[in-house]
Amino acid sequence: MGTGLNDGELVRQIGSGTNRQAEAELFRRMAPRIRLYGLRHLRNEQAAEDFTQQVLITTIEALRAGSLREPEKLVSFVLGTCRMTVLDLRRNAQRKERLLEQFGTDLLAPVQPPVPCLDRDQLTRCVQSLTERERAVIVMTFYDEQTGADVASFLGVSEANVRVIRHRAIHQLRDCMGVAV
Amino acid sequence: MSCPNPIDAAVLADYWLGVLASREEESVEEHLLGCDECGSRLREVMGLAEGVRKLAREGSLRMVVSDEFLKRAAEEGLRVREYAPPAGGSVQCTVTTEDDILIGRLAANLNAAKRVDLRIFDERGIEQVRMTDIPFNSAAGDVAFQQSITYAKASPSETLIARLVGFDDEGRERLLGEYTFNHTRSLPGPGAW
């Protein structure tokens, strides 16, 4: 359950001493967001989980030490920590066990907001209802992770047009799947 | 609380794909670290991406594909069965349980075409599918048409005729090639077949 505190109040409470409830709320609030960042940059569930834990621990350490001078800028601080941690992870993936020893596993339980699993038959119908070019762009984009020159060459259009087609197709797919854009 | 400045799903898709300019990516990331509503929308986009990726791997979409797509599929270990009847010709074809992707490669001179449609007919000449304005590379000299492997595996023995139709600048229609696929069912199936 949330505490109702805004980010700044949360930061102040953590900085005022050992406040497990405020720290737990910070974990609850920020872990899913940090995990998305990790998934985007690391493309791996387990790596994103490890990443989330590292960022949260680094953040808690800094907040306990009162290092964040402007408590309202928690998000900016976390973003900076995310960036540094991605770089750090790419250099060295060894910190996790040491951190687990230091902080225990209870606080670091994985937080896994689910990525929605879509109805396969409905999605098939929706993808099939796109125009030929939209379908080609969407499949090449999400299956092959091609976004620029190759798709443009295949379609005989500019890369800017590929982006327009991709955006239109995503809106149509979400609309067809019953998700408000 | 509702987000006062929600990020468009297509922009979130661009973010997920890593194609945003660095300044825009930074702005999106800062927003996402403070907004569960947009984070939720990003997860929906990720779910959509994953769903499309699975459909593509299953070979169950009927569409024109690129050679890069087929190369990637082969690299992933997918088994691609390909038939390439000459224009005006026919080919005997089938699918097995091991096949993942079924391709009809349709050779044609595409140089003069501004738009190309692919039309699929049954053996009585009744049009089954019309794929309008398919993507094509005029220099490639062929079109790789993916038939749904799910459909092909369930299909009875049948004949399908594919026609590539080109349109010039004035919209005049011209047959670029006709290709006959004589599909023989080799998989055990329901009695109805």
Compact overview of the structure:
The complex is a heterodimer of chains A (181) and B (193). Chain A has 181 residues and is mainly alpha-helical.
Overview features:
heterodimer; A: 181 residues; mainly alpha; Rna Polymerase Sigma Factor, Chain: A; Arc Repressor Mutant, subunit A; B: 193 residues; alpha+beta; Immunoglobulin-like; 2 domains; 4-stranded mixed β-sheet; 5 helices; 30% helix; globular
Written description of the protein model:
The complex is a heterodimer of chains A (181) and B (193). Chain A is an all-alpha fold and 181 residues long. Chain A has 9 helices and no strands. Chain A has 2 domains: 7-103, Rna Polymerase Sigma Factor, Chain: A (Orthogonal Bundle); 120-176, Winged helix-like DNA-binding domain superfamily/Winged helix DNA-binding domain (Arc Repressor Mutant, subunit A). The mean pLDDT of chain A is 85. Chain B has 193 residues and is of the alpha+beta class. Chain B folds into 2 domains: 9-57, no CATH class; 62-183, Sandwich (Immunoglobulin-like). Chain B contains 5 helices and 9 strands. In chain B, the strands form 2 sheets. Chain B has a 5-stranded mixed sheet with strand order 3-9-8-5-6, with no helix packed on it. Chain B has a 4-stranded mixed sheet with strand order 1-7-4-2. In chain B, strand 8 and strand 9 (173-183) form a beta hairpin.
Question: How are the secondary structure elements laid out?
Answer:
The complex is a heterodimer of chains A (181) and B (193).
Chain A: H1 7-15, H2 20-42, H3 45-64, H4 74-91, H5 95-103, H6 120-129, H7 132-144, H8 149-155, H9 159-176
Chain B: H1 9-17, H2 22-32, H3 36-58, E1 63-65, H4 67-75, E2 80-83, E3 90-93, E4 101-107, E5 115-122, E6 127-131, E7 142-147, H5 149-154, E8 158-167, E9 173-183
Parallel strand pairs in B: 2-4, 3-9
Antiparallel strand pairs in B: 1-7, 4-7, 5-6, 5-8, 8-9
